[in-house]
């Protein structure tokens, strides 16, 4: 359930708040994050490896697949929320992108303990 909620809510948060240009990069970032996580699993390193020891990889894959299905099903509501949020925003897309550059975490930092 945790993997499902984390992944689905990650998608929804990004879709509601990120500039469109950053949303377009999300699949590439996710692929990189999953690659780093797989590397940690193979090496038995960190929280990701521990999680896989506690929960079967098939259950994790199923949870992630369901997270994306759920995210797609909730897309109309999320896009409506995005419109509301974007109307009220007080910073530019450029400022948001600059925050991500200034405070970014690498995929390795995200998946480490």
Structure description:
The protein has one domain. Helix content is 83%, strand content 0%. It contains eight helices and no strands. α3 crosses α4. The longest helix is centred in the first third of the chain and has 18 residues, at 26-43. The radius of gyration is 16 Å and the shape is flat.
Number of domains: 1
Q: Could you name the ranges where pLDDT drops below 50 across 5 or more consecutive residues?
A: none
**Overall body shape:** flat
User: What separation lies between the terminal Cα atoms?
Assistant: 19 Å
Beta-strand content: under 5%
Helix percent band: over 70%
Structural class, from secondary structure content? Answer: mainly alpha
Main beta sheet, described? none
Number of helices, counting only DSSP H or I runs of 4 residues or more: 8
Task: Kindly provide the radius of gyration, computed on alpha-carbon positions and rounded to a whole number of angstroms.
Answer: 16 Å
Please give the number of β-strands. 0
| Overall average residue pLDDT | 87
What is the N-to-C succession of helices and strands?
Answer: HHHHHHHH
Which secondary structure elements does this structure contain, and how are they paired or packed?
Blueprint lengths: L1 H16 L2 H4 L2 H18 L2 H9 L2 H17 L1 H14 L4 H11 L3 H5 L2
Helix pairs in contact: 1-5, 1-6, 3-4
Please outline what is shown here:
With 113 residues, this protein is mainly α. It has 8 helices and no strands.
Based on the model shown, name its key terms.
113 residues; single chain; mainly alpha; flat
């Amino acid at each position: 359930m945790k993997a499902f909620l984390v992944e689905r809510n990650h998608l929804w948060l990004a879709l509601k708040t990120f500039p469109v240009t950053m949303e377009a990069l999300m699949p590439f970032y996710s692929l990189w994050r999953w690659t780093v996580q797989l590397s940690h699993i193979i090496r038995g390193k960190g929280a990701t490896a521990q999680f896989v020891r506690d929960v079967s990889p098939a259950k994790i894959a199923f949870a992630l697949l369901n997270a994306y299905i759920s995210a797609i099903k909730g897309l109309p509501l999320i896009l409506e929320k995005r419109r509301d949020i974007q109307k009220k925003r007080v910073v530019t897309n450029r400022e948001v992108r600059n925050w991500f550059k200034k405070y970014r975490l690498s995929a390795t930092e995200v998946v480490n303990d």
